[in-house]
Each structure stands twice: as structure tokens, then as C-alpha cells.
Design brief:
Helix content: 25-40%
Strand order of the largest sheet: 9-8-10-1-11-12-2-13
CATH topology of the largest domain: Alkaline Phosphatase, subunit A
Number of helices: 15
Order of helices and strands: HEHHEHHEEHEEHEHEHEHEHHHEEHEH
Shape: globular
CATH class of the largest domain: Alpha Beta
Largest sheet: 8 strands, mixed
Strand content: 15-25%
Number of strands: 13
CATH superfamily of the largest domain: Alkaline Phosphatase, subunit A
Length: 402
């Protein structure tokens, strides 16, 4: 089967069109009761509903049916990269997101400060979402850790999140997470899945041993778990495969890291959605493709707060008029995965997707929600094909074949 990127390289067509990919992280949801409405359907979203009336709807499958993706695979699919082929560890994305320059000798780890009791069992997987200034000071303490034969770098990311980079020769990056994903049990031990990775796992175990001693009096952040342990993989850039000048407007470091991974320029997005819209307006003339990331539809879903996710979805909706005032040629609104408040986690449910462009077929949709998306023109499709739709509706693909 022809590789998608080989095809887009062959069919690239340059023009002055503008594409906006507006991602509500974890946008998809579930009703609290059978026959009820999801968070998206409950929210008052007049701007998205109006956009649906001039576009087409569908449901995207981030990885494969039933598979609940992490944010990395979810976004790579939206960017047109097969998430089963490009399996990118979260540690790499977090490191790139804070502008840490990774080398081929590095293994990057996403760390979460956590709280453990006197028996070593986790009581809070996020250390009460400890404040950034406290966590940053703890990272400075951990950055003093020394392990023979390797260099160790510890950098703060945001709130309870940090990055650990181990630099040395012969290190593998195929290692399990140490976060057991539940409380009342101790963190898991790092275990490598091959010889080189087992070498790294032993180094990480020593790091954790020293970290436990350093943090023992720093409750609630008195230990850390490790996730997304990985090395930097080779990956083609957005410009190579699509011929576009692409920019990312994202607040959270991980999503900047995802964009940097595929060669997007990272713009200063500030801290609020209003800041992000200001950034979009200021740089509108400079790029062909804009990725805008909105985090809080995901975090409220993970908190299990249906009402808060509804409110954040309404906030997502509020930015649509400013986007449309710039007259983009293609606007896509979707999520990287579903995060139903009912489940308090990412899920394998398909994700509502809206595409609006001048040459849409239009499918008679009246509102943007899961029920409407199930019967929309785009149908049920794998997220990795969304960029083909974006490019086609922007007139950026030549005809295939004679």
C-alpha cells in the first residue's frame, strides 16, 4: 500500500490558502444517562452550530476502533502521521515542548510528582497538582543527582510535571511506565524490554532511589512516577510531506513538543484562549497552516466534572468568530480523542469532527455534536486521513493519475 506521505509529496500543490486545525483536547464525551446528551451536545455552542451548517461532519477514529489513545498518538493522527508507525514516547514530547535539545544518545522521561504514604503506596498520583513554583524548586534539587556513566538532566514542565533526560551510550528506550494508574499501591519498578533498555531501566531505578531520599520530607510531592520513556525517533516534517508553512499555538509544553516534532514553528501563545487568538491574528499572514490547541475540555473530563467540561466546551466555542473573521479557507474543529467525564479518562470512542470550507458538499447538519456527526458526510474515518481532507478542500492536492 502506498505510504500516505509518499502520496502527499507527489501531489503537493502550492497556493495561498489558509487552514486552521482547532483541537479541543478530549472533545468527545458520553451522556451521563442512556438517551441523554454528551458534554458537547449539552453545551451552548451557537458558533460551532453555525459552522456545522456550512460544513460537513464526521467521526474520527484516532488509532483503531476501541483503542483509547494518549495525547501523542491522538495528535499525530490528526497531523496525518500513522500513530501505529510513529510511536512517540511522551517523554520526548515533553522535552521538545520545553525546548530541550535531544540527541540520539538521550532517553527522555515524563515525570509526575506524586504523594506516597509511610508504606510507599501512592495516595495522590499528581501530588495535589502541586504549584509550579514548588515543583520547579524540587526539580532543581533532583537535577543534582549523579549516576556514574551517564549525564542526568531534570527540568520542570508545568505544575506536577517534569522531564528527566538520561544521556549516555548504548541506552534503549523501551521501558514500562512506573505509574500504576491507581492509588493504594506502590509505583512499579522500571523494566526494560531488551538488553539496552534494561540498562536504562537500571539507571532509572537508581535515579528513583536517590529521588526518594531527596524528596522524603517534601510532602505532598515526596516521590515521582515515570511515563512515556523513549528515545527521539526519525520523522518527516510537515513541510516535507504537505508543502505548508505550519505554526502551532499551544499553551501546554507537551503539545508544543508534538508540533515541534513534526517541524511546526512554535508561536508564543500566552496562557489564555484570548492570548491564543491574539497570536493567531498577529501571525495570520506568515503561515499557511495553524494548529490551535485547547486543553481544558480534556482536563475537566479527566476530573469527572461533566458541568465543567460543558463550560469549557462553551469557551472553546467562543473563539470561533475570531477565527472566522480572518476568512480561512478550511477550518477543522475536532479532538485528539474522547475524554468522557463519566469515565474520567481517555476512551476509545470516535471523536466528533467538523470541516468547513467553500467547496464542502454540505450535509444538512444543524448542530455540532456526536449524534449529528454520526450521520455526517465525512462518515467514520481514521484520523490519519484528516489532513488529506484539509489539503483537498484547500485546493492543495493535484489530481492523482492520468
Amino acid at each position: 500500500m502506498t505510504d500516505i506521505h509518499d502520496l502527499t509529496r507527489r501531489l503537493q500543490k502550492s497556493n495561498d490558502s489558509k487552514i486552521v486545525l482547532y483541537v479541543g483536547d478530549g472533545l468527545g464525551g458520553l451522556p451521563l444517562q442512556p438517551g441523554g446528551r454528551t458534554e458537547l451536545e449539552t453545551a451552548s455552542t451557537p458558533n460551532l452550530d453555525a459552522l456545522a451548517q456550512r460544513g460537513v461532519l464526521g467521526m474520527s477514529v484516532p488509532v483503531l476502533p476501541g483503542i483509547a489513545p494518549g495525547s501523542g498518538p491522538g495528535h499525530l493522527g490528526l497531523f496525518g502521521y500513522d500513530p501505529l508507525r510513529y510511536d512517540i514516547g511522551r517523554g520526548v514530547l515533553e522535552a521538545l515542548g520545553i525546548d530541550f535539545e535531544l540527541t540520539d544518545r538521550d532517553v527522555a522521561v515524563r515525570g509526575n510528582f506524586c504523594t506516597v504514604d509511610e508504606d510507599g503506596n501512592i495516595t495522590d498520583r499528581r501530588a495535589g497538582r502541586v504549584a509550579s513554583e514548588i515543583a520547579a524548586a524540587l526539580c532543581e534539587k533532583l537535577d543534582q543527582i549523579e549516576i556514574p556513566g551517564v549525564q542526568v538532566f531534570v527540568r520542570h514542565v508545568k505544575e506536577y510535571r517534569l522531564v528527566i533526560v538520561i544521556r549516555g551510550d548504548g541506552l534503549g528506550g523501551s521501558i514500562n511506565d512506573t505509574d500504576p494508574q491507581r492509588t493504594g499501591v506502590p509505583p512499579l519498578a522500571p523494566q526494560g524490554r531488551d538488553e539496552a533498555s534494561q540498562k536504562t531501566a537500571e539507571i532509572l531505578a537508581e535515579f528513583l532511589r536517590q529521588a526518594a531520599e531527596i524528596l522524603k520530607d517534601d510532602r505532598p510531592a515526596n516521590l515521582l512516577t515515570m511515563r512515556g520513556i523513549a528515545k527521539m525517533p526519525p520523522i518527516p516534517t510537515f513541510h516535507e510531506v504537505y508543502g505548508t508553512r505550519a505554526a502551532a499555538i499551544a499553551v501546554y509544553p507537551m503539545y508544543r513538543g508534538l508540533a515541534r516534532l513534526v517541524g511546526m514553528d512554535i508561536l508564543d501563545a500566552g496562557q489564555t484562549l484570548d492570548d491564543q487568538m491574539n497570536c493567531l491574528e498577529q501571525h495570520w499572514a506568515d503561515y499557511d497552516f495553524f494548529f490551535i490547541h485547547f486543553k481544558y475540555t480534556d482536563s475537566t473530563g479527566e476530573d469527572g466534572n461533566f458541568e465543567a467540561k460543558v463550560a469549557r466546551t462553551e469557551e472553546l466555542d467562543s473563539a470561533i468568530p475570531r477565527i472566522m473573521a480572518l476568512n480561512p479557507d478550511v477550518v477543522i474543529v475536532t479532538g485528539d480523542h474522547s475524554t468522557p467525564a463519566k469515565m474520567k479518562s481517555h476512551s476509545g470512542h470516535p471523536v466528533p469532527t467538523l470541516l468547513a470550507a467553500e467547496n464542502c458538499r454540505f450535509d444538512g447538519s444543524r448542530e455540532f455534536g456526536e449524534s449529528a456527526c454520526r450521520v455526517g458526510e465525512l462518515g467514520m474515518f481514521e484520523a490519519k486521513y484528516l489532513m488529506l481532507q484539509a489539503l483537498a478542500h484547500a485546493g492543495r492536492l493535484e489530481k492523482y493519475g492520468a
